[in-house]
Design goal:
By secondary structure, the protein is mainly alpha-helical. It folds into two domains: 2-45; 61-313, Orthogonal Bundle (MetI-like fold), CATH 1.10.3720.10. The protein has helices spanning 2-45, 60-67, 69-100, 107-114, 122-132, 141-144, 176-201, 206-214, 219-248, 251-256, 268-278, 282-313; strands at residues 47-50, 53-56. α5 (122-132) crosses α7 (176-201), α8 (206-214) crosses α9 and α11 (268-278) runs antiparallel to α12 (282-313). The protein is globular, with a radius of gyration of 26 Å.
Length: 314
Amino acid sequence: MTQSATVRGSRRKRREWLPFWLILPTVLVLLAIQVYPAVYTVWLSFQDRQPSGWTFVEFENFRRLFGMGLFGESVGHTIVFLVGYAGLTLVLGFIIALLLNRKLRLSGLYITLLFIPWIIADIITGMVFRLLVVPDYGLLTGFLQNPSFLTGEGISILTAPRPISWFGSFPFPPSPAMIYLILASSWRALPFITLLILAAMQTVPHEIIESSLIDGANSRQVVRYIMIPLMLPTLVVALFSLTLSGMNGVGMIFSLTGGGPGTSTEVLSYLLYAIGWRQLYFGRAAALALIIAVINWLLITGTLRITRLEQRSS
């Protein structure tokens, strides 16, 4: 009896530890590719590279970062880019979803074609859009080099100077290169946002829409007072997704504008690349990475809170 009880106890212990051993490889991978780099970034943000090695400098990297004029300029560029990119993509995605929701002929083909930009990498998309405006042989060069479109005859949209700012040092209106970057980024993200909105649009009960039309509401009122309130959680998630991807994306800027002309398209994510890998100020780059991580955390927390409030109110 004692021996059988011991065998049953050992089997029970093995069954209890089995889930741990099953998830251990995943935990080790996460520690290697997420936890360790995060901890190392925090450590690096308080260090400075000296001839003798790494030196602890407390918050000096943050002070130097905030003292850079380019940092404040990049914050302004980031705000302009995010507002233009997220707003344009959300509006266009909603309009296209409305059209696809009407059950058009060949709508399945339209959705398939619409999804093509989403499978193209940011780097490739930036290179394609750059080729469209290359002087002499770009497909859009003849139109965009029109003096009535850009100031200065024969100037490429990627090298045209930024207009005089309306708000002091804040970069608005943006440079033509920033506008072109927003259009290219919106084209890349449009398929996913359109399908996300379309899926939410198809969950709106048709009975409510039909009854509102019978009561005398027009199509605009149905969209404004019925569809948008019912789709608001999905729209918030779409806006959050666009903001987060625009905040952290660097591939499109790298291949399309390179942060130029000058620094007119240098957002925070590209500034991080420039400080870390061009100037080799790894401590300052780590400090900027922490700032961007805090902004991402605030975006995630705010989105989750808004979504919970919407769920409670519904």
